[in-house]
Amino acid sequence: MNNIPEKINAFNVYLSGSMLIGLSEEVALPSFEGITETVSGPGLLGEFESAALGHFSSMEMEIPFRQMDEEIFKLADQSAALDLTLRGSIQFTDGATGATGFKPMRVVVRGKNKSFEGGSAKQGNGTKSKIKVEILYILIEVNNKSMVELDKLNFVFKVNGKDLMEKVRRMC
User: Fold this and answer.
1) Residue 116: φ, ψ to 5°
2) How far apart are CA 81 and CA 4, in angstroms?
3) What is the Cα–Cα distance from 151 to 165, expressed in whole angstroms?
4) Which of 90, 105, 100 is nearest to 148 (CA)?
5) DSSP string, 35-70
6) DSSP state at residue 80
7) Which of 87, 101, 115, 159 is 20 to 30 Å from 30 by CA-CA measure?
8) CA–CA separation, 135 vs 108, rounded Å?
9) Dist CA 15 CA 70 (whole Å)
């Protein structure tokens, strides 16, 4: 199958199953930055950074809003757990036929409100308000297949369906 990925054709953001209205055009997904330590010593030519498998630095995701509205305050409660889902359609070109096709993508994020920005008030413009979410759980699926799943609270890290922490969990 020689599909040429092109773009996300469309997407929506949901909070606990309800669609959020009034989002801006772009939601940046988080970086997976491993927690590392420098390894050096006799027998090595220099040093290198070694990541602790499955351990990641603080991860965050901003949810931007074009305009301040009721939806943004559903996310602003710092005592509540947030359950967000991005559902979208990835557009691709079939390399064999040239036809346009689509496959689903889904990103599930659970976490807590880390910050809230009211934005600015300017006549004739949106406020550009945003919420920043501290991510405790993330699942990324493409074409209904789990590509990566990280659950910081339950010691789970899977890539392409492979549980990379299974052996470590059994030992601990």
Assistant:
1) -135, 130
2) 37
3) 11
4) 105
5) EEEEEE-TTSSSEEEEEEEEEE---EEEEEESS--H
6) S
7) 101
8) 10
9) 13
Phi, psi of 169 (to 5 degrees): -60, -40
Q: Give the H or E element holding residue 171.
A: helix 166-171
Question: Do the beta carbons of residue 101 and residue 59 sit within 8 Å?
Answer: no
Among residues 18, 7, 13, which one has the least CA distance to residue 133?
Answer: 13
Residues of the chain with pLDDT > 70: what percent? 99
Contacts of 69 (CB under 8 A, 6+ apart): 21, 22
Q: Residue range 115-121: average pLDDT?
A: 90
Cα dihedral value 132, 66, 70, 129, nearest 10: 40
Query: Which tokens sit at 97?
Result: 């036929």
Closest by Cα among 79, 77, 65, 78 to 117 = 65
Q: What are phi and psi of 127, to 5 degrees?
A: -85, -20
Nearest of 117, 111, 60, 61 to residue 82 by alpha carbon: 111
Name the band, by pLDDT with cuts 50, 70 and 90, for residue 23. confident
Task: Yes or no: say if 68 and 80 are a contact pair by the CB < 8 Å rule.
Answer: no
| N residues, the chain | 172
